[in-house]
Predict the structure.
Amino acid sequence: MKKLLVLGAGTAGTMVTNKLVHYLDSDEWKITIVDQEETHYYQPGFLFIPFGIYGENDVIKPKRDFVPPGVEMIVSTIERIEPEKNRVRIAKDNRYLNYDFLIIATGTNIDPSETPGLLGHEWRKSIYDFYTYEGAKALAKRLRTWKGGHLVLNIAEMPIKCPVAPLEFIFLADWYFHLQGIRDRVDLTLVTPLSGAFTKPRAADMLGNILEEKGIRVIPDFNIERVDPEQKQIISYIEQKVPYDLLVTIPVNMGAEVVEQSGLGDELNYVPVDKHTFLSTQFDNIFALGDAASLPTSKAGSVAHFAAEVFTENFLRYIDGLEMIHAFDGHANCYIESGFGKGILIDFNYDVEPLPGKFPLPGIGPFSLLQESEMNHWGKMMFRWMYWNILLKGKEMPITAQMSMAGKWN
Amino acid sequence: MTAREIAGKVVDFDDEGFLSNPDDWNEEIAKVLAGEVGIDSLTDRHWKVIEFCRADFQARGEPPTLRRITKTGGVPTKELYSLFPKGPAKKVARIAGLGKPTGCI
């Protein structure tokens, strides 16, 4: 029996397991997936929790519901990957799991301890995150009774999971405070290490205009060094200070510690891989998928989805000693909630920045690229159903893994 | 892309003033480029960072991020800001003759 071991049963790990189980003969292959938690979170839904739009039932399901029959699931902390010995040590029963092929899909998480002053007596009192379920829930509670003041949204460092989420948060905050009737008593400021609203030029311009229309201030090129929770200020490396009443932080994002401890990570604990095949640059039987991989594209579920499709085709060749002929292009596709029942859609890859157009059917849509529309908002809202019922289960979506130029214009 | 003479050599630059080809770089060019971004003299500490970035670029094909310079290159972030004020990752990439860091996506 050959052994395929998947570390992480999040978006990428679950999807790829569901895809591979169809193709790998169960008489020849044993597939095992390990995760430290029983709960699967629909992470794109965290954005909506602070504003009371989504609750627990929208974002939580048991991981086991999505692990296909015939695949062994082990819930345990992963202690060490030993690539020289082709095995992984887990905490449960001090077991070693041997593998012929390893897929690392351990994701990325926030690490507030990287920025002095974030974690302390003001954490979840005047300083919140929404990249965790607990953080999003705590913030929802705070916002319900907040009387207004200066809300600062700070991105500590790039890259972050879902680079559009901070923009969506501040767009939704604008809308939410309008509904609460206190928008005139709220200052909204986005403080970012980027030179503008987003990482790619045309989308940055477009999103920058929307921020301006909504009266949201942007402070660019701000690299946070520390927080002064007493004075309620964030302070940059060049001693620029921005005061706040309520700080919403996107802390530094880091890959799993086990990746670092096993000597497989870069400076942010992401696994260096070939950007077209996801094969580790160090070991020829290790791949990394999803946020765990060090790829020059967004850390996002859509990327994990497209990557899983390309990977599956390649992997089935690779195990037979054939060349991996399919090249991942860095395709990402993101809905951006812009508030007041509207949204924007962007579609891009390693080489092509987000452009205007229609998606997925050229000229027809129904979604509009790089433009606000109500249909885009409904696309985002429907996506939750698609995530749980189609994507995670590894079923086909009517969107190609490779980005298409059809329907886009310059 | 534009070509211009710098430190006695004609080399290509991209639209944002980054050297188009890292192989055109030499230490004399670095000194002139540093002057152009307001750094009048390059100390040993500057050179340590520049050399790390050059070597890292050779190995990985892209200019290192600030965190990488700090963690792998061993120069604290605060010092990087005093050596290369304002945007250290971008400034050192420029002086070291590397392309503009993509940094973030």
